[in-house]
Write a structure and sequence with these properties.
Blueprint lengths: L2 E3 L13 E7 L7 H8 L1 E3 L2 E4 L8 H7 L7 E4 L6 H8 L6 E4 L25 E5 L5 H9 L4 E4 L3 E3 L2 E4 L4 H14 L4 E4 L6 H8 L5 E4 L6 H12 L3
Parallel strand pairs: 1-2, 1-12, 2-5, 5-6, 6-7, 7-8, 8-11, 11-12
Antiparallel strand pairs: 3-4, 4-10, 9-10
Helix pairs in contact: 4-5
Length: 234
């Protein structure tokens, strides 16, 4: 079992018993992060919302400043057609990756997963991060293409931006069930509303073998209490 610290929290949080996901990084720099945080990051009705839209300093900066150790996972996202191919040429083939197919705050081009096969070098772990609305046909296609590790799931698209937290639970459960239908061997990283060991055990019932925490990081006291609890699971 592995517990991941979801991006962007993984940029800043490194712990002994977790893996940090850093990014998501795009090919080119996308400015305006602080403005987007100030204007879109909100807590309403028991959930967090954001519309950050992949604001980041770009992949070159990410490789130089965020990839601290072999324990990190680098998260990548594409904006334009051809970006996946260009990213695969830039990123060393021994760095574990998360391919973000699911940012709710940008317009995805058609055939958005086209080109991600280039990351399957056989030398690293490649995680595919899915949308809560990922269709069964996409999951089947990705498994047929050789992808075997899935992060379910990203934030839920709403008028307020991407929504995270406990309201993702039914979407995570559905995706776990679909993935296991198409591949009993797939590794599922479940994330959505995890704040205590009971949530991990719940997702294990649906086939999850690893777990991702994100929203929990907004509450440092609860987060470090959770870390102490998972120490006993290793």
């Amino acid at each position: 079992m592995t517990v991941y610290i979801a991006a962007p929290f993984g940029n800043y949080i490194k712990t002994k018993n977790t893996r940090s996901v850093v990014g998501s990084f795009t090919l080119e720099r996308r400015t305006g992060l602080l403005r987007q945080i100030a204007t879109t990051l909100r807590y309403r009705d028991g959930a967090w919302y954001n519309a950050l839209g992949l604001r980041n300093p770009g992949i070159e900066f990410g490789l130089k400043h965020y990839y601290r150790s072999k324990n990190d996972v680098l998260s990548l996202a594409a904006i334009d057609e051809g970006d996946w191919e260009r990213l695969s040429e830039i990123v060393p083939d021994d760095i574990d990756l998360e391919i973000n197919l699911s940012c709710p705050n940008i317009e995805h081009f058609d055939n958005y997963s086209q080109g991600i096969d280039n990351f399957l070098t056989g030398k690293r772990k490649v995680i595919v991060k899915l949308s809560p609305h990922a269709e069964d046909a996409l999951i089947e296609n990705l498994i047929q293409r050789g992808f075997s590790t899935f992060h379910v799931c990203n934030t839920l698209p709403t008028e307020r931006g991407g929504m995270s937290g406990e309201k993702l639970v039914p979407y995570v459960v559905r995706l776990c069930t679909v993935i296991k239908f198409y591949s009993s061997e797939a590794e599922i990283i479940a994330g959505g509303g995890i704040s205590q060991i009971e949530h991990i055990r719940y997702y294990q019932n649906f086939g999850a073998t690893s777990f991702s925490v994100g929203t929990l990081c907004f509450n440092p006291v609860r987060f470090y209490k959770f870390l102490k609890e998972i120490d006993g699971l290793y």
